[in-house]
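Lab notebook, bench 4. The sequencing result for the construct came back, and we need a structural model before the next group meeting so we can plan mutations. Quick request posted to the team channel:

Model the 3D structure of this chain.
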Amino acid sequence: QVQLVESGGGLVQAGGSLRLSCAASGSISSINAMGWYRQAPGKQRELVATILSGGSTNYADSVKGRFTISRDNAKNTVYLQMNSLKPEDTAVYYCKARAARLGLVYDYWGQGTQVTVSS
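Done. Here's the predicted structure in token form:
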């Protein structure tokens, strides 16, 4: 079992920056990947960025070059640094952890944190 708590959301003007944090607890040794997703009102949840245990990362085309995902293993925390924010980045951002145990895959989700980018 894994528990995820996001923080760092808020209101920022276009062109500004924000850093989201996701702290993991529980059976963290089973986690092999983490990612950030976002969901805007009336839209489907979409993947923003992922990071694997080995450190490799992947980004949605819409955020590539502006967002950076990273992790601090000592603190069991993953971050999303968001720069050059645009109004279309406005959404609830969710942290997800993927864990593997006994041959089964489990996904765990945080509660979400609101990011609002004003024009």
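DSSP finds no helices and eleven strands in the chain.
Will bring this to the meeting.
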